[in-house]
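> tool_call: predict_assembly(chains=three)
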Amino acid sequence: MARTADVVVIGGGIHGCSTALHLALRGLRPILIEKDYAGRHASGVNAGGVRQLARDIAEIPLSISSMDLWEHIQELVGDDCGFESHGTVLVAENDEELASFRARVDDLRLKGFTHEELIGRDELKRLVPAVSDHCPGGVVSRRDGAADPFRSTQAFRKRAIEKGAEVLEGVTVTGLSRVGDVWRVETSDGPIDAPKVVNAAGAWADRIAAMLGEPVPLTVVAPMLMVTSRVAPFIQPVVILRGRKLSFKQLGNGTVVIGGGHLATPYRDRNETVIDWEKLSLSARTVWELFPVMRQATIVRAWAGIEAYMPDGIPVVGPSSTSEGVYHQFGFSTHGFQLGPGTGAMMAELVATGATNVPIDGLGITRFQSR
Amino acid sequence: MFKRLGDIGATLTLKVDGKPIRARIGDTVAAAMLAAGIDHCRTTPVTGAPRAPYCLMGVCFDCLVTIDGVGSRQGCLVSVREGMEIETQTGKREAGR
Amino acid sequence: MTQASDLASSYELVVIGGGPAGLAAASLAARAGVQTVLFDENPGVGGQIYRGITANPVKNRSILGEDYWAGAALAAEVKASGALVVNGATVWSLDQTKLVGVSIAGKARLIQAGRVIIATGSLERPFPVPGWTLPGVMTAGAAQTALKAQGLVPSGRTVLAGCGPLLWLLAAQMLRAGAKIEAILDTSSRINWLRALLFLPDFMLSPYWSKGLKLLREVKAKVPVIRIESVEAAGKSKLEEVVYVTGGEERRVRADLLLLHHGVVPNVNLANAAGVAHRWNERQLCFEPILDADFGSSVPGIAVAGDGAGIAGGTAAAERGRIAAIAAVRALKPGGSVADPQTVRQSLQREEMGRFFLDWLYRPADSFRRPEGDTIVCRCEEVTAQQVRDMAAMGCEGPNQMKAFLRCGMGPCQGRLCGLTVTELIAAERHMTPSDVGYYRLRPPVKPIMLSELASLPIAEAERKAVER
């Protein structure tokens, strides 16, 4: 005898948990299935950047609606999630970069987006006093900030359960098929039937899509991060670079998180990653050149999350192309954390009403299918 | 807290927070500080509590001191050198140290 | 002194740790013709048990006892064997591809190993009591190290607390060196005796039986030994008094130094971070790697020898090192000749005999392994027992989630001093076994490295160009 639900959400990252919460807020009864524990993978171990800056145009509406939710996160999930907003600054290392940034900011403004602001040397030095003198300026997105990724994911999970969602952890989806007018989700803990399914399975989402006859060119990647021991406060905004891989932020407790997207080797079936130290060494050199004050900092830990990357670097969000009632919400290509709250809200609207007010053109799964 | 067993042998001088202390060639920084009767070598970043070496084998990280300008060095793993400058570490390390 | 730039980019065998297991392994492998390097982070080899063996300031041999000086033979053997021994070398990373990250004098290198023997030994079991973070509280091992390697002996009022053979050995060594001990507060439990008695016959056959009895008599003749139920370190900014309860009554003794000891446990950090599978040992109350008969781990090509494989003492460690080395030599030089491990196995068996008696006799009581209230559990992040218990009771099921919520285990010691306590507290609160609770999932670097060290890694130009956007 299969259990039933209004919606089965596959995957307990921030996207799955956010969708489950928003479905519950709409009075629906979702069951979320997570093979490890909520926030075990990319959502729980990323750099925590709550960033609108430097996104592909297709993601911007979701990013803006998400930012509105981040600014009221305490009300939404009953936890401030460690969210602090001091802006994100994209630092230009030379005049060519600055010129390309100017072109991008102008283009965004033409399209009606004003969250990115070009800044010169003086404003850069004011915002980021510790940055090296050779940098001529950059771009700032002032609403941006950072939050605690594991705490945020767990907060969404907890609130979802409080609002009526059921969360099954340590349970793996083993099959997905149509039985009558419902979807039967086979799991390691027995089957669950539901009229709607959301595939938020992160680095394993391609397997769910394959069960629906919708193969997608998903690559499993393992972006690396390092964190230092506590340092007296010296930087407030999150700093990112374009020409070289770097994201850099100092947390409230004084530790500094260094990321940027250099990749480790993932083994997604063993939940393991192998760190590439030579690439981390390049991050170390970048930090060395950009922030001389960090030269004697100590690295206390390095790790990598297991994440899904799509060939065009933007997620798959929207209805399935083969299966009525199934929706996709995966492939956030190392920058899905900030999008979690808003995409969950949008997805709940889409699942519940069949339509959404937030534009998600360009994110559909059909873009990978030849016409 | 600790005293030398027998003859100290060849010695050298180092400074701890500006004050000179005598150490045996072959001492670790932590041992030299203990032998000199120095009470604590750091205060914690979380509450500012005083700490002194606990394990002397490199696993507790309570012996962290700044050595010749470089912070968060494990004093129990570093051998003393003539003229070494040790500073006890207060709370969060400063950026640039 | 070997510098980082002197190292080759690969070695057939990398031995990590210069205690008895590492020394014996490196010697055997090098003599069999395997290109071997041994990395040890201390200024000289010997590990903990033979610490300072190559440069010992203690002139009077009888203070430390003959078992200690046996280490000199191992140190001499490795010197003559042809293995490259590198002191002051901290291994901060090992992964399943057997790539070793090592730093010497602030410069980092990545070394590819054909095979690895992890011989990083053991460390003191955490002994969390109120006030244990005060200056003036140290481990028994620390006092032993201070004596062996630095020729230092406690000068003020000293109290020892805990149980286990090393506590008695330390007391004897300190007394012979002229130190005064105010009291030994014995935490061993009478209940343990019953369990241990089963194994007494075996133990009586081992050389430790007569040595142990002699040691106990030597110490008890000079120091009051008091059976206690609990102990606390008290003082404002350093230790001033030791407070203990004996026979239900609270007593206080002024003290300048409190030395704690509840046995040693395997130092699992490097093996854990390398992906080696571990399991809970209920007799010894610790995690140990899952190993085959040659001390090979779940990661092909990585073996764990010595006390890191499970607590068995110094002589057993050397035998284990040899067995692991023989397997490594056979894998690296299949045609060559190397000793048959059988004699070594027999030797090892004799050494291990009688351990069960000591293990059961000196098992620390629950109250010492599962503290309560404001007692600090994670020293680095100052997380208390109550915080861990509350979080566990609220549903936090494992140490890794606990780490993410409370930051315990996120400090530089990487759980070496809190890991076992956190596991035991979660087990207590959630009525699970420590085996089911598991341990922290550790990540490299297993010791902090400086940004400048990491930046100093030599990188091929092609590699650099490949990763720029």
